[in-house]
Write a structure and sequence with these properties.
By secondary structure, the protein is an alpha/beta fold. It folds into two domains: 195 residues, no CATH class; 262 residues, NAD(P)-binding Rossmann-like Domain (Rossmann fold, 3-Layer(aba) Sandwich). Helices cover 28% and strands 22% of the residues. It contains 14 helices and 19 strands. Strands 1, 2, 3, 4, 5, 6, 7, 8, 9, 10 and 11 form an eleven-stranded mixed β-sheet that branches. Strands 14-13-12-15-16-17-18-19 form an eight-stranded mixed β-sheet, with helices on both faces. Helix 6 crosses helix 12, helix 8 packs across helix 9 and helix 10 packs antiparallel against helix 14. The N and C termini lie far apart (53 Å). Bound molecules: zinc ion.
């Protein structure tokens, strides 16, 4: 196993939706109907920044190999990428880049997959197929990871660093998303590559009469729901209904992050009527007692979402569900999910003079963030909210101060969210979804869906004929940055950058 500066590397993590979008773009740019896709000898398809394990993290974890995280994939010729992972803005950024290459069937690989890797052949491949790759990385001797995929199923994952024996196979590629998949590539795998196996080693769920109707509705996809690990931020009137629903649906692991205590108005959620001042999580646990599937777990975390311990919880989840009313808390939750490449669903409701409204944003890893898919409703207060030491998950109820709230509408939004979770775990979406539910003045109900494909950098500087669009600061700085890449000063700096971009765009 190769040893980079500090620690052995377990493999590469890449958002499934990003890879899917890049491959689809390659299929579309090749000849339309008949010609095989990407049937040119030049196979470099996309590149991305890589987050390297921080020295401290690597030393602490020297016994267990760590993972490299890829940032957003960019199509087109290599160009400078924003450095990944610099929690301290003054620190020297780690220098690493991922190249994604796709080759037609039967193309010889850069190095034979079943033998010891050949550094000279690897360097020759780089010179022939990706001569400009150094432009993507600012450092003098960057670490390069090449993900080389062949259309007949052969795959290689290689690391390269000049002056260090050249070229090593990496053990595994993990595609993150609603259903994380781990693939073995290179010498460890036989060719053609094996079909991906689910990472989860959970036993098959026993058929139970309780879940027979659900199985009839969902088919084999029921397994994905029952094996899912979901982390919920916020156990208020939406979050508590969601938690209750997820446990009834048979989700295997549910974690809930909620630091607040009960107030009289909380009783319109699915919470036991405990005295004012009791922990809200205790009220939730009391209410849902006995509804979970045998063997399922409910983990309660009475912490603000900005606490450092929340990052590792997000990293362990298949899906993060965010139901808080505070934009700073949403931003923290979104940052953890970006940094650890997790899919998330974010739900918000409001009662307006002309009717009730709800927003559901489904953001598979690599498809964008709350800032670039819909933005923040409380943007003008965001910096001030972030300046608070640790924003609570569900702060003083802003809706209460505005226009009140309705259990009917909160529960409707929660159940619309549960249905999206069912659909996404059964068939993960490669695109982000912004779903807007609204009542109109005449009492009808409207549903508007907007789908967002991952931004592959088409608007960037690599296409000089087009007006360059500035990249989303959150996505470009945080995606794949690892939990060490998330800090309060960094989130404030990124928020400032995002607000300035917004203002410049509006001007
Ligand atoms: Zn973004």
């Amino acid at each position: 196993m190769p040893s980079f500066p500090h620690t052995p590397i377990a493999g590469l993590r890449l958002p499934w939706a990003s890879l899917q979008a890049a491959l689809q773009a390659a299929l579309q740019t090749s000849a339309p109907d008949t010609a095989p896709p990407a049937a040119t000898p030049a196979t470099l398809l996309a590149h991305a920044g890589l987050a390297l394990p921080a020295a401290a993290e690597a030393q602490a974890a020297h016994a267990s190999p760590t993972w490299l995280h890829a940032g957003p994939l960019q199509l087109g010729p290599p160009r400078p990428l924003p450095p990944q992972r610099h929690a301290d803005p003054n620190a020297q950024p780690a220098s690493a880049v991922l190249l994604l290459a796709v080759a037609p069937a039967e193309t010889p690989p850069p190095t034979a997959p079943t033998q010891a890797p050949n550094p000279a052949a690897c360097t020759a491949w780089l010179q022939a197929h990706a001569p400009g790759w150094r432009q993507a990385c600012a450092g003098p001797n960057p670490l390069l990871v090449l993900l080389w995929l062949r259309l007949d199923g052969l795959g290689l994952l290689l690391a390269h660093r000049a002056g260090e024996a050249g070229c090593w196979p990496l053990p595994a590629l993990e595609l993150t998303g609603a259903r994380t998949q781990r693939l073995l590539l290179g010498p460890a795998a036989t060719a053609p590559a094996r079909p991906p196996a689910p990472v989860s080693a959970e036993p098959e769920v026993e058929p139970s009469p309780r879940y027979a109707p659900q199985r009839a509705a969902l088919g084999p996809a029921q397994q994905h729901l029952h094996l899912a690990r979901v982390l919920l931020v916020g156990a208020g009137r939406i979050g508590s209904v969601l938690a209750h629903g997820l446990l009834r649906m048979g989700v295997q692991h549910l974690g809930v992050v909620e630091p607040d205590v009960m107030e009289p108005h909380n009783e319109d959620g699915d919470l036991a009527p405990l005295p004012t001042g009791s922990p809200k999580l205790q009220a939730l646990a009391r209410f849902v007692r006995g509804v979970a599937r045998p063997g399922a777990t409910l983990a309660l975390h009475p912490w603000p979402v900005a606490r450092k311990a929340v990052g590792p919880l997000v990293a362990l989840a298949n899906l993060l569900v965010v139901c808080t009313d505070n934009d700073a808390a949403r931003l923290w939750a979104d940052a953890w999910a970006l940094a650890t490449q997790r899919d998330r669903l974010v739900i918000a409701t409001g009662i307006q003079p002309d009717g009730a409204q709800a927003e559901l944003r489904l953001l598979p890893a690599g498809t964008g963030c709350l800032a670039c898919v819909g933005g923040y409703a409380q943007a003008h207060d965001l910096l001030q909210q972030l300046a608070q030491p640790l924003p609570p998950a569900t702060p003083a109820d802003v809706r209460q101060q505005r226009m009140g709230s309705l259990r009917s509408w909160s529960a409707l939004a929660a159940h619309a969210g549960l249905r999206l979770i069912e659909q996404h775990l059964a068939q993960p979406s490669p695109q982000a979804l912004f779903r807007h539910l609204a009542e109109t003045e005449d009492g009808s109900l409207q549903v508007r869906d907007a789908w967002h494909a991952p931004d592959l950098g088409h608007g960037g500087a690599a296409f000089p004929g087009r007006h360059p669009r500035p990249p989303c600061p959150f996505c470009h700085s945080l995606l794949g940055a690892g939990t060490e890449g998330v800090s309060a000063p960094r989130l404030r700096a990124l928020t400032q950058q995002w607000l300035a971009q917004r203002e410049a765009g509006a001007a």
